[in-house]
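Memo to structure team: turn this sequence into structure tokens by end of day. - J.P.
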Amino acid sequence: MMPRGNAMLVGVGGSGRQSLARLASHIAGIGVFVIEITKLYRLIEWRDDMKRLFEITGVSNTPTAFLFNDTQLKEQAFLEDINNILSSGEIPSLYGKDELPAIYDGVRKRAADAESGGTAEELWAFFIESIRSNLHVILAMSQPLCPY
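Reply from structure team:
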């Protein structure tokens, strides 16, 4: 429930990490965003999903938990992007220059209400701050059983 609050759940397979994350999100009144991995899921689909997640949390200003499972880690770039989200709130080069005006228009009213300013840099900073406040990353990682 805390702004910028994230979680990492580690346990053996079937221990209820994802169920616990969904229950905690429901209790906190936070929606859960889960990506659906298919055989053809690659970096392009990942980036599209991250754009949707950023629009939910940054433009729509909706608190959302991003539940990511270790079995969904198909490419190393996924982990790098999650690291960037956790450290700075953004993924470098996620948006093209042609996509930025729609984001600026989406946050302009809220930024004006918050007296944040109306330049492109100020609107982008407001967008990133909204993402950082509303996005809660939950990593659910498996730990193999120890034979000892």
